[in-house]
Structures are given as C-alpha cells and as structure tokens.
Specification:
Strands 1, 2, 3, 4, 5, 6 and 7 form a 7-stranded mixed β-sheet that branches. The protein starts with a strand and ends with a helix. By secondary structure, the protein is of the alpha/beta class. The chain folds into 2 domains: about 120 residues, Flavodoxin domain (Rossmann fold); about 40 residues, no CATH class. Bound molecules: flavin mononucleotide. The site of flavin mononucleotide (FMN) has 23 residues, from helix 1, strand 3, strand 5, strand 8 and helix 5.
C-alpha cells in the first residue's frame, strides 16, 4: 500500500463516520478538508477524499482538484442518500471534466439523512425534493421514509471494495 492521505468534508457527520471507518481499516488518520492547505502533499502518493453529495455536487471537491497532479492515485468517495444507479453515477461523474475523470477512482458510499438536524435552508430544499418524490411514491418509498424518521445506510460492508482496492495499490 502506498502512503495515503485520507480527507473528509462532512456537513452532518456521514462522511466523517465513513472516513473514520476507512482510517481504522487502513491505519491512517482521517483529516478534515479544512486542514488540506497544511498537508505536505509530497509526502503522499494516494489521496482519498470522502464527502457528502448535495444537489448532485460533491461538497468541497474544488478544494482538492488543483492538487490532482500531486498524487499518483486519487480516490473519491461521494456519500449520498440515493441508491446508486446509472443516473446517480452520471450525476457524480458530472463533478469532473474528461481529464479529471481519467485520473479519479470513484467509490460511492450510501449515507444517512436526519431531517430534524438540517438547517432551515436545507429543510426548504428537502421539502421541494419531497414534492418531486411524491410524484412516484412507490419508487421513492425509501427516500420518503426519511421525512418521517432518521434513516441511515451507513455500514462497514460498504467500504469493503474500497479497502481491498487501496491495499492492492
Ligand atoms: C439539501 C440536501 C441536498 C441533498 N442532495 C443529495 C443529492 O443530490 N444526492 C444524494 O444522493 N443525496 C443528497 N443528499 C443527502 C446527503 O448526501 C446525505 O445526507 C449524506 O449522508 C450527507 O453527508 P455528510 O453528512 O457527510 O455531509 C442531500 C441532503 C441535503 C440536506
């Protein structure tokens, strides 16, 4: 395994929880993206960035993009509430241009949602989403359930593929 820097950006805790799990498995410390400027990039070959997905955007992804050329391996773990499918895959990939896409390895991780802990603005955004989801209630049953009670898909099994991959490089 190469020398790994593990970073996270987390608004409500899911990405931090995953980053801590990954850190335990790889025996590296998870570092808040706010400290990225202080990281000596030349000390690392591999960067892992774990971050929440908000309106299809990977939170704080721009913070690390300028440093892509400093690492041999770039692993991005977007943490979203949606079930992974072709549409979500495309949305995630739209966070990168063609050049960047060639460099990154993406491991999507399913997160959590607790509506009661969201900010006023986030609650408003979620209410708009609820109206859209209600148009197909059966198909969106899992997502709609999160409006009644906190729902979490965070699970150690979800990081298995990522851990195997990192241990092989
Ligand atoms: C305003 C808002 C927008 C969201 N947009 C998306 C989205 O586009 N796709 C998705 O899969 N999850 C979306 N989510 C769910 C978050 O990605 C999920 O809660 C994730 O676990 C957050 O990670 P964090 O707590 O580490 O920031 C959204 C949540 C909020 C509050």
């Amino acid at each position: 395994m190469n020398k790994v820097i593990l970073l996270y950006a987390s608004k409500h805790g899911s990405s931090k929880e995953y980053a801590d799990m990954i850190g335990t498995e790889l025996d590296v410390k998870a570092v808040d993206i706010a400290k990225f400027n202080c990281v000596k990039k030349e000390d690392y070959d591999t960067i892992i960035f774990v971050s929440g997905v908000y309106a299809s955007k990977i939170n704080k992804i721009d913070t690390i993009k300028n440093s892509f050329n400093k690492f041999d391996n770039i692993i991005i773990c977007p943490v979203g509430f949606s079930e992974y499918n072709e549409e979500i895959k495309n949305n995630i990939e739209n966070n990168f241009n063609q050049e960047e896409l060639k460099k990154v390895n993406i491991f999507y991780l399913r997160g959590a949602l607790d509506i009661s802990k969201l900010s006023f603005l986030e609650k408003m955004m979620m209410n708009i989403m609820k109206k859209m989801l209600k148009k197909n209630p059966e198909e969106n049953k899992e997502m709609l359930a999160a409006f009644d009670k906190p729902v979490s898909f965070i699970n150690k099994d979800n990081i298995k593929d990522l851990i195997s991959y990192v241990k092989e490089i």
